[in-house]
Design goal:
The protein is an alpha/beta fold. It is built from 14 helices and 11 strands. The strands form 3 sheets. The chain has a 7-stranded mixed sheet with strand order 1-9-6-5-2-3-4, with helices on both faces. A two-stranded antiparallel sheet has the order 7-8.
Length: about 325
Amino acid sequence: MGVDLGDLLHRTKIEIKDLSGKWVAIDAFNTLYQFLSIIRQKDGTPLMDSQGRVTSHLSGLLYRTANLIEAGVKVAFIFDGEPPAFKAETLAQRSEIRERAAVAWQEAKDSGMDGFKYAQAASRINSEILEDGRRLLLAMGIPVIQAPSEGEAQAASMCARGDVDLAASQDYDSLLFGAPQVVRNLAITGKRKLPKKNIYVDVEPEVINLEEGLEHLGISRIQLVEIGIMCGTDYNSGLTRVGPKTALKLIKEKGDLEAILAEREEKIESFAEIREFFLHPDVTGDYEIKMKKPRVDEIVSFLVSERDFDEERVSKTAHRLEEVYRRGQSTLDRWF
């Protein structure tokens, strides 16, 4: 998902406490997908209620978001609107990949093999998952903002306007959309197993500063967008055998993507339209960023009565949220 520019950009490791008192705009789709992918049973099966409805994302939203709030982080979740037309092919490809992964997962289970990686790749978000996530967040008193198009673009715009301090996403697209500061690994911390290796690495929050990154690379934001397009984005396939370092070398040699394409005699379908979308995406300024009082009874009723969560744990977490809200400005300066 998204363009991978990790080899180019400097990332500063931080602790959650470093974000205390700061507003963070979180790409909801990206975060929900992470929860669905990693919060699973040993055989890869997601958490579900007695009716077979997936609840992994609800578990992540409640417990991990509550931890952030209790640490003083102020969060707003941004939900996607309509994707641009040129994303249709990518969405179709992802759907096909998920279908193949689901088949491989079932075959692994039938043969008694470890199919966890296939289960993760088969994760999908449907309208029920989105609506359940939105419902829980609103009950928790957390701002929920509907983007007209891409959630990452909306989060980046809110950050650029100074309405939030950082945009949060695992992808690097937020930087292409112009977010001054992006935090990764915000809700996903701990140990992560490297693919195909019996090695675990620490997953810690990290911040990327766009201006510092551009200055270090000696390029403009437009050129960073063009590097992303050359590597491949959610909206296009990249150039043949071109990764971030090669793309940076090309952009410094030729100056812009038009010159690079002309010399290589290659084409990137709709590249000018994609570049324009990154530079001037469809966003809205019609939103309110304000924490509201958690509705404890509603949280408990939804998760316990409707989704079979443990009542004691849910109630305890919901009351923790209420206590943070009650403490108000003494704990979260400028929250209200």
